Amino acid sequence: MRRYILRRLLLILPTLLGVAVLVFLLMRVVPGDIVEMRFAEGQFFNAELVAKERARLGLDRPLWRQFLDWLWGIVRLDFGLSMWSGNPITREIALRLQLSLQLAVMATVVAVLLAIPLGTLAALRQDTWVDYIVRVFAIAGLATPSFWLGIVMFLVLLSVFRWIPPMVFTPLWENPWQNLSQMIWPALAVGYRYSAVAMRMTRSAMLEVLREDYIRTARAKGLWQRLIVKRHALKNALLPVLTVIGLEFAFLMGGLVVTEQVFNLNGLGLLFVQSVARRDYTLVQALVLLVAFVYILVNFCVDLLYGWLDPRLRYQ
Amino acid sequence: MQLGRNGWWQGVLLALALSVVVLMVPGPFALAQEQPRSGGELIMAVPSEPPSYDGHREETFGLIHPIAPFYSLLLRVDPDDYTKVVGDVAERWTVADDKLSYTFTLRKGVMFHDGSPVTAKDVKASYDKIIFPPAGVVSDRQGQYTVVEAVEAPDDATVRFRLKWPSASFLLSLASPWNFIYKADTLAKDMHWYEQNIMGSGPFVFVEHVRGSHLVGKRNPNYWDKGKPYLDGYRALFISDTAARVAALKGERAHIEFRGLAPKQRDEIVKALGAKATVQESPWDCILLVAMNHEKKPFDDPRVRRALTLALDRYEGSRVLSQIAIVKEVAGVQVPSTPYATPPEALAGLAGYGKNIEASRQEARRLLKEAGAEGLSFTFKNRGIPMPYEPLGIWLIDQWRKIGVNVNQEVIEAAAYYKVLRAGEHDVAMDFQCGYIVDPDLDLYKFLSVDRNPSNYSRYSDRVLDDLYDKQSRATDSEERKQYIRQFEKRLLDEEAHYIMTLQWQRIIPHSAKVKGWKITPSHYLNQQLDTVWLAE
Amino acid sequence: MMQTKPPRAAVAQASRALSLPRWLRGVIRFARRWPLGAAGAAIIVVMILCAIAAPLVAPYHPLETDFAAQFSPPTLTHWLGTDAFGRDLLSRLIYGSRTALLVGFASAFVGATLGALIGVASAYFGGRIDLLIQRLVDLFLAFPIIILALAVVSILGTGVGNVIMAITVPMIPNCARVVRASALAVRQTPYVDAARAAGFGHGRIIFRHMLPNVMAPYLIMLTAYVGQAILLEASLSFLGLGVAEPTAAWGLMLRGAAVEFAETAPWMAIFPGLAISLGVFAFNLFGDSLRDALDPKLRVL
């Protein structure tokens, strides 16, 4: 088991390094840079201006130099300054992290509250109309673009209820009512899609477990046993469900991008899109590393959980 | 359903007509009827955020709207009449007879927010940074002040500008909303300090800025203009999504957005707020242009270029597009209703500005045939910004189709756009011009030969045009200047058709009726110090 | 999973008695067993027919502007209303199905096929090659999809071909991982070792022996991907990085004017969104039933 953990831990570093190289190169290959973005519209634009600013941002140095300097900074946990605002990147990210994190957690809660009961219900009532409704509900969640759902939600709130959510983010502990009235809508839009995947997973996992011999025997024995059995079944079915929830949590960070735009949330997703549009290399690189790190971490934890819960997998 | 819709439309039109009528009344007269009230916090919605805080460096309105109230300028545009220049830090000035020297006397009692007085030394240091930036310092509009020989501060209250040649627009160029007055001592210690910090002498004092969210300013109790500002403070909300911004205005979470909204959004807001909304509209000093690369055949042939501009039915375009996009008037090289705007007779004489579109299009087809470019087909490069690039792109392609020209559009992401244009590989592309002040020197600069102005994406060299530009720039007699400008326009848009002008943008500002004392100008960079603004009950 | 229902036997008997062609009998059997999947398949067929017969079905040309009819609500002349340029929404939706299906099928096919090949190769060769490919797959999976797509579109520009490429890239590692799991099972059969011993080349073994045995997960991933590709195209277009105007594409129709005028002209935003949802919905329903039929144990997200 220890060897397993060690191996997985050691693999994290080269993966992160690979991500770092890839994002660095990708951003440099994409045409346009921040200096042009910033000054190209000016009426008195000239090449000298561009050269000055590029030198200031260090963009005129050879690529390998830039990469190594940046990497060295990362190692010392110094992510540098945003090329757009000149602010330290850690500060830019910290400002938005709270919102995105809260949204992710709320969406997860919504997803779990929807997925587990509904998925279990569908499994227990397989092939009945209840099952069909749940399955259709789940697939609709997968099919609906979350940003479109957000647009429709906004429309309904505005037209029918004549009310729009608050525009500025207040932290949960400062003003819970204002905070929740702003965040519940994107959480629902994102959570619905998230729950769809988990719902289907719960259903199929439960179905598999319910087919097991010991369950069938217990079933034959009567009602009271059935309750115990359901609890057993649920516990074993939870494993793949946890996997799905864990993996999707990481995808959430990337998927928040469009949702934050629609609901005007000052989160990491919006920052991401804006930074790419501005070619703010340092900020994009830091964000990608962050997302990749979260994904890898979650993956790792899930693998650990799997290994711990199911001894058979430890020896692979 | 049809009937209900018509009724609603009439209601909107009525509301609009009423608001427009109310605003037709000249400024001072309207102000005299209402007494400004002190107090209140103005909440403005801003579509984009300032990258850094240094006005000498940046060119986005995302800096002006939240940051301009913290700073004073030497001269500024009159909040009541944008064609006039008044003193801000400067109290009065004299111009030498040879027009090569401008001397300004500064007001007494102007203080920085840290308590120190604003002196000529500070004005000189700020302008030196703008006009003669040291190594490593970027001054975005340095090219505008090539006429300046030197800036002098003979004593604490006097600033003198010495010019190399007489310039008709010099005073106007000093009223640039970007020329914040910084503290000389601070600049001496660190030229980059003002990029990350705010400390000025304006009507408001900086409180806080939460990136991506909001920025707050409060009134400056020591402002030189006693009694002003009226507001207790203001809050700028950064809302990048247009629909969310409109919703903020409709839901009364913001009072005003200072850039401009689309016609249908104005209608939505008026419908939602009714009498609680006021709408101010004005032609905007921004326009989309079509650049035709003279280095690529057949766009080196003026007949082909003329054909492309003749194909456009600008008047129908104006009628139709003004309902869905932020464009409206058919104009020449200067914004309508400004001193050097094109008079109707001159406008009618330009290719593509005639009222008989059938005749124009026939002429266009004839020209194409003569130039051997029948069945012309090319790629039109457009910028990936929805408003108004998309609708205008679709309209242009549609109009060109009517003379048998087949165009397919290639949309390029905003960040890569200018790089592509500068590479000079395009055939025809959408170009853009926004002036921060209505000034022929600024608005005509783009059309200079490509070796003088690298932003000339039609990539031509026209010495006659250059010569006309220089003449108008130095003509201190306004009638003489008008003549040169008309000649410039004729050559640019008609004889050579170097560039095609589409429709003038229209600035539409629907705002809460509580906001008073702010008068719209053709530039979304002007009149943003907010010292004259007050909130009614 | 197999639940015998007496009526099915009766239907089977009846269809044989009526001597319906074999394939039709197969279809009816599928429809009875998995009605949801059949519904999905039906919608897909309608979509494909719309796409092929677009010029016949659509009442107007999708690029035809009619400024007099800007923003008109659903009426008899324009069944689903018009957009900001007076272009008929129904026609644009019908032509949009072409773009959606083209992008969907092309990306899914290329993505799933390349992914399957890589997964099979990885499982077949094993050892260091397998480890290397696995690390690369992990790398790309850790990368946010939006960035990859964004990068491709930024480098190559907008347009249908480039969007297809942008969507394909993130799909490859995902499919590789899933197929590899199945391929590993095949690899371990003595059959493959015997083939090697007999002197068959690598290529032959992979193509003729391993690939046919991973058809089930491959097909399932393929159908799942079509739905995902349509959604991804919609998101990219919404961000301005997808297909370019004035092409009719569902995702593109949701951007800009549709959102800005959402309150006065809600049909502009509602119908394209419904079309996307319906399309993805259909592919998911069908894919699900396919999975149930071929390999119920397969875990596909």
| Tally of helical runs of chain A | 12
Largest β-sheet summary of chain A: none
Share of helical residues of chain A: over 70%
Largest sheet of chain C: none
What does this protein structure show overall?
The complex is a heterotrimer of chains A (316), B (537) and C (301). Chain A is an all-alpha fold. Chain A is built from twelve helices and no strands. Chain A has helices spanning 2-29, 34-39, 47-57, 63-75, 89-124, 129-143, 146-161, 176-211, 213-221, 223-263, 268-278, 281-309. Chain B has 18 helices and 18 strands. Chain B has helices at residues 2-24, 27-33, 61-67, 120-131, 170-174, 184-189, 193-196, 242-250, 263-273, 302-310, 314-324, 344-348, 357-370, 389-401, 414-423, 440-444, 463-474, 478-495; strands at 41-46, 75-78, 81-87, 90-95, 101-106, 148-155, 158-163, 204-210, 214-219, 233-238, 256-257, 277-292, 377-383, 406-412, 428-434, 499-512, 515-516, 534-535. In chain B, a hairpin with a 3-residue loop joins β8 (204-210) and β9. Chain B starts with a helix and ends with a strand. Mean pLDDT of chain B is 89; it is low at 1-7 and 17-32. In chain C, 72% of the residues lie in helices and 0% in strands. Chain C starts with 5 loop residues before the first helix and ends in a 7-residue tail after the last helix. At the A-B interface, α2, α3, α5, α7 and α10 of A face α8, α15 and β15 of B.
Features:
heterotrimer, A: 316 residues, mainly alpha, 12 helices, 0% strand, B: 537 residues, alpha+beta, 5-stranded mixed beta sheet, 18 helices, 18 strands, globular
SSE layout and pairings?
The complex is a heterotrimer of chains A (316), B (537) and C (301).
Chain A (H helix, E strand, L loop, with lengths): L1 H28 L4 H6 L7 H11 L5 H13 L13 H36 L4 H15 L2 H16 L14 H36 L1 H9 L1 H41 L4 H11 L2 H29 L7
Chain B lengths: L1 H23 L2 H7 L7 E6 L14 H7 L7 E4 L2 E7 L2 E6 L5 E6 L13 H12 L16 E8 L2 E6 L6 H5 L9 H6 L3 H4 L7 E7 L3 E6 L13 E6 L3 H9 L5 E2 L5 H11 L3 E16 L9 H9 L3 H11 L19 H5 L8 H14 L6 E7 L5 H13 L4 E7 L1 H10 L4 E7 L5 H5 L18 H12 L3 H18 L3 E14 L2 E2 L17 E2 L2
Parallel strand pairs in B: 1-10, 1-11, 13-14, 13-15
Antiparallel strand pairs in B: 2-3, 4-5, 5-7, 6-7, 8-9, 9-10, 12-15, 12-16, 17-18
Chain C lengths: L5 H12 L4 H12 L1 H18 L1 H4 L31 H37 L1 H16 L2 H12 L3 H28 L2 H8 L4 H9 L4 H24 L11 H4 L3 H4 L6 H28 L7
